[in-house]
Design goal:
By secondary structure, this protein is mostly helical. Helix content is 74%, strand content 0%.
């Protein structure tokens, strides 16, 4: 990052100004679209000169690329380096909470990146897609392990992973800092819902005292047993 025009070197003031530019740009991109927003618009929203914004970002495309780096690619790095071994239930709870917090920490920025992925260059688009795959892989690995160990129901890990990712991503559209719940509370609630949706123990008990419901649970148990036997052969 270049030195701040308002302070020396990598100063805190310079970092704050850069973040303020990204935040203002995100809000304007959501309101007007990238095509309807100029660098001058961003500068005016912050009470800055256009030159001050140029110091950090020469073009709107540079802002989008930076947002993608900080939102999408950083999530991919988090997934790639985050080791969650042990109990799959606790691993899933921890990872969903972590990923949800990542989205909730910059919801406006996420919305901009999600809506404008096609505007990236081929190189940056490919990097962003690789990051999204890393997040999907992390979800799938935990779910697959939970199914294999008997902690989770017999579910399609890919479908389940996409569902949980969608639940986390959607917070960028509905979460409000002025709401009754804070980010941490929302992330915790989502993590708990994710675990309860997949936990095998909750589903093994018949939901109603009927033969049909008992057969449903029995079929699921048999399907799980067959899968385990196939994996041992």
């Amino acid at each position: 990052m270049p030195a701040s025009p308002h302070g020396g070197g990598h100063s805190l003031k310079g970092e704050l100004l850069r973040d303020a530019i990204l935040d203002a740009a995100s809000r304007l991109f959501i309101q007007r679209g990238i095509g309807g927003t100029s660098i001058q618009d961003i500068a005016e929203a912050l009470g800055l000169t256009r030159t001050a914004v140029y110091y950090y970002f020469k073009r709107k495309e540079d802002i989008l690329r930076t947002l993608t780096e900080e939102v999408t690619m950083s999530a991919g790095r988090l997934a790639a380096h985050d080791t969650l071994d042990g109990d799959p239930i606790e691993a899933l709870r921890a990872w969903v909470r972590r990923y949800a917090m990542h989205i909730l920490s910059r919801p406006s920025e996420f919305r901009v990146v999600d809506r404008n992925a096609a505007e990236l260059t081929d190189e940056h688009g490919a990097a962003a897609q690789a990051a999204r795959r890393a997040v999907l892989t992390k979800f799938r690995e935990i779910i697959d392990r939970g199914v294999h160990d008997g902690h989770f129901r017999m579910v399609d890990a890919r479908v389940s992973a996409f569902s949980l990712i969608g639940m986390c991503n959607w917070t960028a559209w509905w979460y409000s800092a002025d709401g009754e719940l804070g980010r941490e509370e929302v992330a915790e609630a989502i993590a708990e819902m994710a675990v309860n949706a997949l936990k095998r123990e909750a589903c093994r008990r018949p939901e109603a005292a009927t033969v049909k419901e008992s057969l449903r649970v029995l079929r699921e148990d048999l399907a799980y047993l067959e899968t385990m036997l196939e994996q041992r052969d």
